[in-house]
Amino acid sequence: MHSHFVLLAAYNRWMNERLYAAAGTLPGEELARDRGAFFRSILGTLNHLVVADTIWLRRFADLPARHAELDPVRALPQPERLDAMPFPEFAALAAHRGWLDAIIERWVSVLGEPDLRHVLHYGNTRGARFRRQLAPLLLHFFNHQAHHRGQVTTLLSQAGVDVGVTDLLALVPDAGVDTAAAPRPH
């Protein structure tokens, strides 16, 4: 399981680098323009991802192991709304995203199997309480990122910006299969 999460953390960073490089080609007013998306704009959707990741990482920071890799996240203020815009300026948002992705990769790299089996007790932004095992929560964490990055990719495409390859498959290492005989991925 652990190696899959390490791959997903690397994919998260790789995709965010690509996405932010593509978004950075647009002027600020285009990033902030309401495009009818759930979080309205490209900037709004990217901010939502930072907010949601912060909420989840602060929850993960409460694991009994108290991983030091999450110490910087413990110091962050708790976001109160999923549509908050803590970074209205793209440059500051991009810098924070890179910082957060580095924390995610370092933290995931030190997780052990006992951590992945741990049952986390947490509350959502509406106050509902849950008890769920960390491994499926991490799957949700990375899937949530992919879901909203897909939305941003669509918004960028509608704005005339091509992000390029977005498939996780691009980071899956070759397992020594004879590539001449193997079927090609889409």
Task: Please write out the topology.
Elements lengths: L1 H22 L4 H5 L9 H19 L10 H4 L15 H21 L2 H5 L1 E5 L5 E5 H25 L28
Helix pairs in contact: 1-5, 1-7, 3-5, 3-7
Outline the structure in words:
This protein is mainly alpha-helical and 186 residues long. It has a single domain, classed as Up-down Bundle (Four Helix Bundle (Hemerythrin (Met), subunit A)), CATH 1.20.120. It has 7 helices and 2 strands, in the order H-H-H-H-H-H-E-E-H. It has helices spanning 2-23, 28-32, 42-60, 71-74, 90-110, 113-117, 134-158, and strands at 119-123, 129-133. Strands 1-2 form a two-stranded antiparallel sheet. A hairpin with a 5-residue loop joins strand 1 (119-123) and strand 2 (129-133). The protein is globular, with a radius of gyration of 17 Å. It starts with a helix and ends in a 28-residue tail after the last helix. The model is unreliable at 182-186 (pLDDT under 50).
